[in-house]
Structure formats: structure tokens, C-alpha cells
Amino acid sequence: MLELLRNPLYTESHVVKDSAHRQKYLKGLEMHRARFHVVIEELDEVQLDADIPLEELSLVRPVAGRILSAMHEEYGKLIQTLNPVDALARIIDGPVKIRFDVDPAELGEVPAHVPRDVASFGLQSIQISRTVNAAADKVENYVQQRQNAEEQEINEKLDTQNAAGSLDSLPTDSLRKLAHFHAQLYTSSQQPEDLDSAIGHLEAFLQRAPPDDPNASALVSLIQLHDTKYADFRDPLDLHRIIHYSEMALQDTNTSEKDLTSILPKLSSAARLSFQQTSDMTYLDKASNAIKLAIELSPSKMDPTLPYALSMTLKTRYQATGEVKNLDISAQMMEHALSLCRRSGDEFTAIQMSVNYALILRLRFLRTHVVDDIDRALVLCQHALNFFTEPLERLSVLNNLALILDARYEATDDADNINSAIEYAEEALGILMSMEGGDNLDAGRAAILVNLANSLSRRFSLTQDPSDIDQAIEYGTQAMAFATPASQGPQTSDLSGLFRTRYQYSKQPEDLDSAILHAAEALEHIPDSHPLRPLALLQLASCWLEQEDQSTIEDAIACLKEAFDCTNASPGDRISAAQLAAKHLVHRQRLDEAASLLESAVGLMPELGMKWSSSKERQQSVALCNGLPANAAMVALENGLDPSRVLKILELGRGIILGSMMYYRAEVDTANDPEIEELIRAFNHARMRVDDAEPGHKRRGLIEEMEGALDAIRAQPGYEDFLALPSAEDLMRLAKDGPVVVVLTSELVDPGVAIVITPSKIFTVRLTKLLHEEASQRMQDMAGNILNLAEGAWNQRNQEMFKLLKWLWEVAVQPICGPDGLDILHEGRDLIRLRWVGVGVISKAPFHIAGNYGLRTPNDRIGKYAVSSYAPSLRALLYANDRKPKQYLHRKVDARILLTKIPEAEGAHPLENVDKEIKAILKVAGSVPLDAFVLDSPEGKEIIHQLPLYNIVHFACHAVADPTDPSESHLMLASGRLTVGDILKAHAAEPDIAFLSACSTAETQNMKLLDESIHIASSFLMVGFKHVVGTLWEAPDNICTKVAELFYRRLLCDEGEEWDGRWKVAEALHAATLEAQKRYAGSPLAWGPFVTFGI
């Protein structure tokens, strides 16, 4: 929750000597009496039995709340720091128990202010009477006697103290008694002099006590006094003294375990707060060690505040170091604390803790971009806001809600989130401005102003309303007046960003000058080890680059390189710094530096998001690095790096999500060495458990177990590269059935390049006509216009597709296959096999049908020379290639085929040719014969259940490629859908071929996730199918039926070639599409989308 800090001058403890000060104490007693009279007046409204003994006088808890609310204005400080029961106990300061025993059945007609739900407090009985005067008189008489006695005691003790003249003249025993007396007096007077006197007397007592005298209890009391003083006045010196005296108590052998469990949480809290004010890591270490020791010493029934304190300490450590494991354990500890609170029925404390838990979830979201975390944080804070009614309690919740909604806006781009964030922050600021607290509220005011300024700036980026950015700068400037030493750097960097944002709109040089000035100043206040320093460096570098001044670009590059070298920063921030630096290094022809930075940045990509998160959540993190693998590879090639090493860079940064699944499912043989064999078995067992686990903390533990087993294997001689990225030898082995061609372009280096893998070598072909900007525009035009059924007539769009195919042939495919490449463009030569891997924007290109289809040059097309197929990545190709061939691949009669037909799906037009398609396939299968089974409009769970039982599966249905979230792409069922995520959960015993006779089953529409290649076809590859037939765009129903029939006829009935499970599938589809092309020659949109993925 929001911590309100101030830094007043420290006043040393002193002795009260004069009569004027004595009058302050007596005045405090008068205030004490006045408070009690208010209570008595309220008691008159409550029906109490006159015969109840004074010691058992009761008061219902909600009524106490009413009394306190009435007293709030005058005695707010006391009330805000205590719950209603404890506050009344301090006000009365006697043996009166603040409790009201109630049996709802006996209430009958009672005054409106006595609630009927008091049974929820677990109370059982009440005595109701018509008279209260006797009880009230008895209470007043008792209090009057007590106050008279206290006045006399005060006068006597002050006389004794003044007679002594100084602390040195007082007896040792009197020092301790006077300290206790002043501490009690402070609870009623709330005068800082009383607290200082209590501390001064106790410190004098400790200094005078013999070293061998037990003084642990005095140390405990002194720590408590300084803790109270810091809570009330926020003097950092009190934190230092808490730490000092706590360490003394820890060294004192007389300190009991009970005292230690009281001291250690205070030591931890003081050390953590000291770190936040000084950034000195030694304080943070003390905080961690203290609270861990407190947990070790705690009884079996643990106090929830202990795991809570550890959670907050680990949260602070994460903010200081950027180590994600601290944040994860912090979340776990907070969940444990909340569980303990709820188990004990303490919902109030649980909700208070949940507000801080929401902040931890927000931090984790900012690091991992897991939307579920920010959604949970929002629910927690909204619940807390509905629960709390006091302004101070609502203040921190409102501020945290604003932070959470601001972060959620970044994830969703939903304007409602940023508008709500601003509304909550403005409400919090209004509450804070209405409160009286002086310096005590300065840090809170600064935090709210900064948060409000940043949210207004984000809304300005959305609306371009200049009043938003002007107001943001005003708030940011106001916040600087309340900055603490620890917050000054980050706040100044934020203010720089506000000025830079306004400059981008206004183009006023003074705005950019202010941005640069504040960015440079921010770095002076942020330590080198602070995780926010990279953001400040990025800010200054971005400001300098805005100047477009050659003299400052070198400084900007230096800033960006320093930001990347900050290992405690988030991977996303470091990657951003590397990409921006590399862009300017390339322009300066400093390729060696750029290549090194980009390769290191690609190495960070697997750290984006959490390995145990869902695919959808990891997509959000990976999308932030769109284009990085291609940039790194192209710059590395330009710098002279060997192509085989460049391919490793690409594989490290591409297909990260599917790559992790291949990692869990790849077939690994055990070794001959018994020791290695046992390690591999343990690894395989761990992988299977990971694969079956749902995303979350359980999966995290299993992944750690699996990685530990992997490390143990790689530690063995000869197994250092076990399951590592493919080597050059692996890749050339992959090309034995035909070359593999990787095509890429980059925004940093033109022109594009093809990396060609053959059984004997890996080489590059420079594609001098393939320019990145043009390729990007062509691919966007294909997706947005040519393939969009809503755009233009069928014939017109087909003509545009022919133009695109001609361009693709001339700039890429022809040079790759020509004399400077594979040299296969010779008439009469046998067809060769080509596997295409596109990188980045060019991955959407239909290489398999590239060509010049004009009448003058009818033979200039790839289909005349090669049978093409695709792979999401080289690892995916190896994954399919290395799966053990089954016996049935050589004996067609052993194969079993599952045919799934769904002619009608909810929300889609009927497919008229589905039944015809299934009948045609059944006829072909029957002539072999093959064991065939038909599923007619099944549910998703039935498909998943049947999938492992068949070698070949065929789907005739509708499909949808999700435009934003590829993992939600799906086959449309009669009711419901079968998503990529559903398919990936399936397992198949002997999978071979999956034919997806549906639209866009091999299409990724999200341009930021092209390198992940997440679509329906790739999901079947991950399940284990070695060949997947899919479509790159929508295909007419009748064409799907014809291509499917031709494919199976060629695959199953042609006896001309041996069935080998590799060449035959791709060749069968190639022949089927060529036949379709003859029938629909002028319509490449009709016969062109069909492709094979895999080996």
C-alpha cells in the first residue's frame, strides 16, 4: 500500500522541567476526559443493564464505530491508527471491555443504531434494560477517581524529575519507570515531547545498566517506542535506531524467543524502509535475513504478518535487482499470508494484504505480460475499494487501481481502462489534498501526481488532446516538490518523458531541451545497479536521437549499450535498447558492434514471459520482439558470420513457443551407458509430466525439475550438446531428401538473402531485387486486398495474385533456383524436393506457386522444377524428421484413416461438397483397402479421443485463422470449436498425415507473430504428424473437394513409386494442385492455397 514518508528534523529526548510543560500534560488529561464524556453521551442511547459490573460493561463493536466516526474530526489521528475496539480501549484507559454479547433472537425492537448482524462476531448473549443512568454514573465516578489519581501521580513524578534536574541525577530504577510513564502519557496526549522523553529515559537506563544485567525487555520496549515514533512522524533516524537496538537485542543472550519474534519483523520492516530511502543493499539483506529468522522461530500456528513481511521484502528485492524469482516467491508468500488470514476469519487484514498482492501481480505483469495477473490484480483492488469506507483506507486502493488500470491499458488498448485510471487517480488526489498531514503525506502526494501524469500522457497518445499532456506536465512538475532522495531519479526521468511526448506533438525546441535536461539529471540520482536505470538511459538516448544532431548520436548509442548491459533489467527493456542501438550502429557501418548486440538480444528472447505460462500469455511477450531475429541474422551475415551460425541465431529467436513444446515431446533414445541411460529416463519422465501439466506454479516446479535433469545430462562427457540447437551437420542431414531454403529480409539491411542447406554445404544467395520495404508492402497488400473476399471482384483479385507471383519469382525464387543458387532450372530434369522456411514478413509468401504465368513464358514457374513444402522452423522440420518411422509406412494396408466431416457449423454457411468429398475418399480408401472411420459433426472431445487411434486424419469443415491471437485459430464444429490450444493437448500414437480441408489452416494473420508460425497446421505437427496438408488462405469448397480426391488417389493408388512416408505426400499434393491448375488456370486463388508442412 501507499507509504507516506517525511523527513522532519529530529528532536532529541529531553527532561520536562518547567511549569508550562506541566500544563501541557494536564491539558492532555482534560482532552482525555472530554473524549470519555463523548463516549458516555453515546452510551445513553444504548440499553444496558444497570447491574452489570463495571469490569464487564459491554459495547457492541459497530456502535463503537459510530462513536469513533462522531469523534473523527477532533481525534482522527488516534482513530486512524487503531481498530474501533482498541481506540475506545485507549480512550477509556480502564478495565472496561469493549464487547457486546448478542443473541439476535432476544433483540426484539431495538434502536436503529444497534445492528442486527452482530451475531457475525461470534457472540451469544445480551441483557437489555430500560435504564442506563446507574451504569453511566458508575462509569463516570470510576473515571473521575482514576483521573484524579493520575493527576496526582503526574504531579509527583514531574516534581521528582524536576528536582533531579537531569537524567544523570535520577536513580536507575526511576529512569525505567519514568520511561514507562511518559510512554503511557503519550497515548493520551499524542504530544511528541512525551514520546521523546520516554525514549530518552529508556536510553539512559540502558546506558547505565551493567553489561551482565538482563536488559532484553528494555531493548524490546525501546524498539517499540522508536517503531511508534516512526509510524507517527516518519523520521528516518528512528528506522536506524530500530535497526541498531534490534541488532543489540539479537546479540543479547537474555533475549527470549518470544521477544525475538516481536523484534525481528520490526527489524525487517525498518531495514526494508531504510533501503527504499537509501538504495543501500545491505539494508535489504538485513530485512530478508530478519524475517526469514522470524519465520523459523515462529510456532506451528504462524502469524500471517510473517509471510506477508517476507513477501514485501522479496517484492522490494525484485524492484532493486530485477530477479524474477524474488517476485514469484513474493507472490507465493502473499498467497500464504492471505490463506492464514482467511483461515482465522480476519477478513479485514486479508483485504488490506490483498491490495499489496495486487501490486505484486502488477509488477509481474509488467515483466511477463501475462494478462491474467493484471486481471486478478484489478479484481482484488475493486473488492477492497468496495470494502473500505474510510478516506485514508480508500486512498491507497484508489492509487493502486489507477496503476493497475494504466498497465491494463497497455495490454488491451482499451480506452476505458486509461480513462478509469485517470478518474481513480484524481479521486485519490482529491482525498489526499483534503487531509491534514503536512510532510507526512508528501511521498503519497508525489506518487499519485506521478501516476496521474503518466496516465494522462498515455491518454494523450490516444486522443492527441493537448490539454492532457499539458496537465500531465503540470502534475509531474508538482510531484518533484515532494520527491524523496530515492524517488527523485525515477520521477525526473518520468518528467523527461512527458516533455519528450509533448515535443513530438508540438515540435517546440524548448520541450525537447527540457526533456534532455531532466533525463540527464535523472541519471545522476539513479544508481548503476538500479533496475530502473536502463529505462532512464533509454529515455536520455531517445531524447538525443530526437535532436537528429550527429554530435549527440554517439552519446545516445553509448547510453543504449549501457542500458543493454544492465543485467538486472527486464529482458524486454534490454532488447529494446539493443535494437535501437543496432539501428544507428548499422547506419554508421559499425556492423561488428551491431551484430554482437543483436545476437545477444536474440539470446534473451527465450526469457520473455514465463515458461510455465500459457501459450497465449507467452505470445504477448514474444510479439514485442517482432523483426528481431531477421535483423540479427541479416546484420550477422553482412558482418561475415558463417551461414550455419546465422541459422542458429534464427532458430533461437523464432518459434519459441512451439519450440518449447517440441522440447517436451521430442523422441530421445536412451544411451548404452547405464548412468546416462538413467539420467535420460529421469529427463523423459520429467518432460512427460511438464507436457501434461496445466500452466501455473505446478508446471513451473516440473519445468525446474526437467531443466535440472537436462543439466545433469549435459554435464556428462560427450553430452554437452544434448538437445541443443541443431548443428550444421544436423541441418545438412536434414537436406538429404532435398534442399532446405530459408528466405529473409530485414529493415536494417537490404537486399534480402536466402540461406540454402544441401547435404554437402550451407551457402547464401544474395537476392538483389528483394527489398524489405517492398516485400512488407506486397505481403500486406496480399493479406488486405488480394485475399480479402470483400475487396474487388474474383477475376480482378486473381490478376493481382498473378502479379504478386511474378514478382516473387523474379526477386526470390528464380535467383535461388538459378545458376548462382541451386541451378535446377533445366527443362526435362526430374523434380527435386524443396522445403521453404520464410522469416518475418516474407514468411507469408506463397513460394510454392511463384512464377510468371503469362503466355509468353509459360514454363517460368517453380512447379515445373520442384515439389515444394514448408516448415515453421528448422527445429520443427528436425522434430518431424527424427520421429521414428512406423512399419505401416511401407505397407499401406496397415494404415487407418479417420474422416471428420462437419458440413454445417454455427455462424457459417453450409459446405455443400463435404459429403461428396468424404465419399470420394472412402472410395479410394476402399480400393486399397484401408481401415476408414467417419465422424459426422462430432464434438471436440470426441475428436481428441479418436485422434490417437489413426495414422491419417482428414477434416472437411470450416476453419478460422484468428486475426489477433493465433492460439485461438480453430476448426469450426457443429457446436463449438477445436482451437490450436485444444489440438496441442492431444497425443497420437502413430501419426503420419493430417489433411485439413478447410480455409486458412496454415495462415498466421497477426503480423507481430509471424515468426512463431502458430496456426492449425503447425499444431498438428506438434502433436506428432510428420505431414500436414493445409491452406494459406480461403479456398472454394468445390476446389477443396477436388484436390482432396486427387491427393488420395495419387497417394494411395499409384503403384509407380515406393511408399516412403516422405516424398510421396508432398508429391501427391503437388500432382493434385497441378491437375486443379489445369482446370482453373486463371484462378491461382482457387488452386494455390494448398501446401504441405513437415518432411
UniProtKB/TrEMBL annotation:
Annotated CHAT domain residues: 804-1094
Name of the protein: CHAT domain-containing protein
Pfam families: CHAT
Gene3D superfamilies per UniProt: Tetratricopeptide repeat domain
